[in-house]
Design goal:
single chain; globular; 303 residues; TIM Barrel; alpha/beta; three-stranded mixed beta sheet; 38% helix
């Protein structure tokens, strides 16, 4: 039988607007007020993805449907041109990839992210992109052009360099090293880049050696900053992730059941992890300043 992850259905829709405002009252917690997602659902199939529950709004499940039923907003570039051309628009930063990766495999077919970036360039509009995909380098030229007229930041999500953990938790993504190589190519062209060390998985990617390998590699590949965030499990994601954990890492099941009675791991644990990453940032000369782009925890508050 074929791998079910390859049996992807693309559902093409048209939207009236593509720029979404962050829920009022959460702007203080997130460094952006506007988001853009050309796709809903994500072929990367990350077991822990916080956005899984958003698929339930469409009547789909947050598990396999999220991985294989991708909604494609085929008129996203045209809708964006209308949004940015409105009299009241003041060229605020737009964060791309806050729910689904804008460079997932669907982008190779539809090129919606590429076309949206060209609209951003035409309007000199600041943008932040978050991705796990080296496919972003296909847009290197337009990103470079946009960076001459507006702020551009590209955030690469890299939680571990361990091949076994990567392959199990992010089964349809590019190898972390490939992401870092893509980041270096952008940085060499003057595009501001950073690493989102997230989500940090208790017992899997939180050991000091793993964290240091990621931070050191980030610096070596041109990152200006590293931001970290510990795994959180909202409803929809938790029901998908916990059975995976019990099968793949049964020795951690009891610990996760204790840690994740709610959405978040214990504060004492998360503070310890943040302090450890902060020491590494200082050691490798990377910024601690909040990147102009989403982190997993921030996005949870923005949904």
């Amino acid at each position: 039988m074929p791998d079910p992850r390859t049996a992807v259905v693309f559902e093409e829709i048209e939207c009236k607007s593509i720029v979404n405002r962050v829920t009022p009252g959460t702007v203080r917690q997130v460094p952006f007020r506007w988001t853009l997602n050309p796709y809903r659902g994500c072929q990367h199939a990350c077991t822990y993805c916080f956005a899984r529950s958003t698929h339930e709004f469409l009547g789909y499940d947050a598990g396999r449907d999220f991985d294989t039923r991708v909604v494609v907003k085929v008129n996203a570039p045209e809708a964006l041109r209308r949004d940015l051309g409105r009299p009241g628009w003041t060229r605020e930063l737009i964060a791309i990839g806050t729910a689904c990766d804008p460079y997932q495999q669907a982008e190779l077919k539809y090129s919606l992210t590429n076309r949206c970036l060209r609209v951003m360039r035409d309007f000199a509009n600041p943008v932040s992109i978050t991705t796990k995909s080296p496919h972003v380098i296909r847009d290197l030229d337009v990103l470079e052009e946009l960076s001459r007229v507006a702020e551009v930041r590209v955030n690469f999500s890299v939680a571990t360099l361990d091949d076994e953990v990567w392959h199990r938790t992010e089964p349809s993504t590019a190898r972390p090293r490939k992401r870092l190589e893509a980041m270096q190519k952008l940085a060499e062209r003057g595009i501001r880049t950073g690493v989102m060390l997230a989500p940090i998985l208790p017992g899997l990617t939180d050991d000091p050696a793993n964290l240091e390998r990621v931070v050191e590699a980030a610096r070596e590949h041109g990152a200006s900053y590293v931001h970290d965030n510990v795994l959180f499990l909202r409803p929809g994601t938790k029901e998908w992730f916990m059975p995976f954990l019990r099968e793949a890492y049964p020795h951690l099941a009891e610990r996760y059941a204790k840690y994740y009675r709610g959405w978040y791991a214990p504060q004492s644990y998360t503070q310890q992890v943040h302090q450890q990453v902060e020491r590494l940032r200082m050691k490798y000369g990377l910024l601690r300043a909040e990147p102009v782009g989403p982190t997993a925890g921030q996005l949870a508050m923005a949904m």
